[in-house]
Amino acid sequence: MKNSMFLFFSAQDISSIEVGLLDAEGRLLAFRKTETTPEKYLATISGFLAEQQVFAEVLEKIIVVSGPGAFTASRLTVTIANALSFAKNIPVVGVENPKRRGGEDLIQKFGKDWVRTTSAGFVNPTYDRPPNITLKKQNRENVKT
Predict the structure, then answer these.
(1) Around Cβ 67, how many Cβ atoms within 10 Å?
(2) Cis omega (within 30 of 0) for bond into 130
(3) In sequence order, what are the residues at sequence separation of 6 or more whose Cβ sits closer than 8 angstroms to the Cβ of residue 119?
């Protein structure tokens, strides 16, 4: 079992998720980008941790890219991060990535800073435009009120 780990994940693109582990100094220890759908994000994160033989008990912080990106991907990854944070009592830090840099690049550039960043309690998704979360027009006509 490894000590003092920080879990990182990002899914700015709806068709993939990036998951990484950082050590207590903010250095990248393991990383994987997986092509998958949002429905499998949590299973992908869990599988990655299992492959690395890392358990929630050694996670000291969760770092999640809060956006901007695909709305569903941003909302889901933030929800997963907040849920893990709450369930395991682990601080969560949201980071914005407006330039949409890859996860490895972000970790190398900002990992040491994230180690020192304190949690605000929970993370909100970040959008680059107002969300348009509605039913398609044809579906609205079929909904009974």
Answers:
(1) 27
(2) no
(3) 61, 85, 91, 92, 93
Domains of the chain: 5-142 (3.30.420.40)
| 93 three-class SS | strand
Instruction: Identify any residues that bridge with 9 across adjacent strands, giving them in sequence order.
Output: 19, 64
Nearest 5°: phi and psi at 137?
-55, -45
Token pair for residue 62? 């969760």
Q: What does the block give as tokens for 29?
A: 């220890």
Q: Which helix (H) or strand (E) holds 140?
A: helix 137-142
Contact in structure between 102 and 110 (CB atoms under 8 Å): no
- pLDDT recorded at residue 142: 58
pLDDT tens-digit series, residues 68-116: 988 889 999 999 999 999 999 999 999 999 999 999 999 999 988 888 8
CA distance 53 to 1: 6
